[in-house]
Write a structure and sequence with these properties.
CATH superfamily: Vaccinia Virus protein VP39
Distance between the termini: 57 Å
Strand content: 15-25%
CATH topology: Rossmann fold
Radius of gyration: 17 Å
Helix content: 25-40%
Length: 233
């Protein structure tokens, strides 16, 4: 019997986590799967994802959304490497994340903020998105998944009133430079800007001493990706 696409996706996803030294409980995994199902199947708030992308939501979108968490987990396990890392890197240990405040600009349908909120319940997340249907969807998901550490903000980040944040993130929003310019005013001193990009779009930053780049690959994707961070000094 041929495995279903859903089964293959889950196997690829859990294999990806294992290859990146991450172990999640069955409860957390089920919550991530439930989020993925809600994005694909919920139509009352409009089409949230293309049919092509819906077939690989776990391996392309959820896996990508978890890269900041994967980076933190591996940094925690290898504290020596963290101490030697670039000035702009996240340099956070998992046990130090409790009580941190993390805002995601242009959250869309909830990536990366919702997967991150699921795996890090000790962090307070703000999903910032101006489009009303997306805001309605994220509030619906928050209620369905009982995410007490998530606040959905129906505004542009610049008018959200959020300030002194420990982290501000975005995923494939604009150029790194434009995203940094929007994020920086909301960061606390020492806070970190975190973005997920195609590596081709940020290769020009390789020699920038203020920027830290962590390259990675996603299951069944040919191109290379990058987690890019910059500290607010």
């Amino acid at each position: 019997m041929t495995p279903s696409k859903d089964t293959v996706q889950k196997e690829l996803f859990t294999s990806f986590l294992a290859q990146n030294n991450v172990t999640l409980s069955s409860e957390v995994l089920e919550k991530l799967y439930a989020f993925a199902d809600l994005v694909v199947e919920t139509k009352e708030f409009g089409n949230l994802i293309s049919p092509k992308d819906s077939e690989k939501i776990l391996t392309r979108h959820i896996a990508d959304s978890l890269m900041p968490y994967i980076y933190i987990v591996n940094a925690t396990k290898d504290s020596g490497a963290v101490a030697e890392s670039a000035a702009g890197s996240m340099v956070e240990k998992l046990e130090d994340m409790k009580g941190k405040r993390w805002a995601d600009m242009g959250a869309g349908a909830g990536c990366p903020s919702f997967p991150m909120a699921i795996v890090m319940p000790e962090v307070q997340f703000y999903a910032v998105e101006p489009r009303n249907k997306r805001v309605q969807f994220m509030n619906y998901v928050k209620d369905q998944l009982h995410l007490d550490n998530m606040t959905v903000v129906g505004k542009r980040f610049e008018t959200s009133g959020l300030a002194y944040l420990d982290f501000v993130s975005c995923r494939a929003l604009s150029t790194f430079e434009n995203d940094w310019e929007r994020a920086q005013p909301g960061l606390a001193r020492g806070g970190k800007f975190v973005t997920l990009k195609s590596y081709n779009n940020i290769v020009h930053l390789e020699n920038d001493p203020q920027v830290h780049i962590y390259k990675y690959a996603l299951p069944q994707e040919e191109q290379e990706y990058a987690l890019v961070t910059r500290g607010n000094e």
